């Protein structure tokens, strides 16, 4: 969770970060959150109401596992010596990143297409722009 390294800038902008996941807590601790103590709340939405409400879709198996960019990313992580995390219960559920302004409007949105999370600097810039 690279966003934790920018916590101070996010808080200076008056923002709150929430992570939403659908796996049960024990699976999250062994996969996505393995070795990480998140400094932001992690909410579990087992029924994925949040995912549907924000228009986050599911990919096809080919869209994820036959995409060479996905394999390239995993190769890069392994090459840097990063520990690859266990897979969650549904590798086809896509996530997204959203910034909601103080009036409750979506100020920035980036639904995920594959393993393509936005750079943290882009997310923080969107948070700071929404705070103005």
Textual characterization of the structure:
- The protein is an alpha+beta fold.
- It has a single domain, classed as Glutaredoxin (3-Layer(aba) Sandwich), CATH 3.40.30.10.
- The chain contains six helices and four strands.
- The protein has helices at about 5-10, 25-30, 50-55, 60-65, 70-80, 120-130, and strands spanning about 20, 40-45, 95-100, 105-110.
- The strands form two sheets. The chain has a two-stranded parallel sheet. A two-stranded antiparallel ribbon has the order 3-4.
- β3 and β4 form a beta hairpin.
- The longest helix is centred in the middle third of the chain and has 12 residues, at about 70-80.
- The protein is globular and about 40 Å long.
- It starts with 6 loop residues before the first helix and ends with a helix.
Walk me through the topology:
Elements: H1 7-12, E1 19-21, H2 25-30, E2 42-44, H3 49-53, H4 61-65, H5 68-79, E3 96-100, E4 106-111, H6 120-131
Strand coverage percent: 5-15%
Give the structural class: alpha+beta
From the spread of the alpha carbons, the general shape counts as globular
Low-confidence stretches: none
Count of individual domains? 1
Instruction: Indicate the CATH architecture.
Output: 3-Layer(aba) Sandwich
CATH superfamily placement: Glutaredoxin
Q: What is the number of strand segments? A: 4
Order of helices and strands: HEHEHHHEEH
The largest sheet, given as strand count, sense and whether it forms a barrel, is:
2 strands, parallel
Per the CATH scheme, the topology name is: Glutaredoxin
Intertermini distance: 25 Å
Assigned CATH class: Alpha Beta
């Amino acid at each position: 969770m690279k966003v934790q390294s920018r916590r101070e800038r996010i808080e200076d902008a008056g923002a709150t970060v929430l992570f939403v996941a659908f796996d049960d807590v024990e699976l999250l601790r062994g996969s996505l959150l393995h070795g990480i103590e998140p400094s932001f709340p992690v909410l579990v939405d087992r029924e994925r109401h949040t995912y549907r409400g924000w228009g986050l879709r599911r990919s096809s198996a080919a869209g994820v596992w036959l995409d060479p960019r996905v394999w390239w990313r995993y190769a890069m992580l392994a090459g840097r010596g990063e520990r690859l995390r266990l897979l969650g219960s549904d590798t086809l559920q896509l996530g997204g990143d959203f910034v909601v302004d103080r009036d409750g409007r979506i100020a920035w949105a980036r639904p995920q297409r594959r393993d393509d999370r936005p750079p943290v600097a882009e997310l923080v810039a969107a948070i700071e722009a929404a705070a103005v």
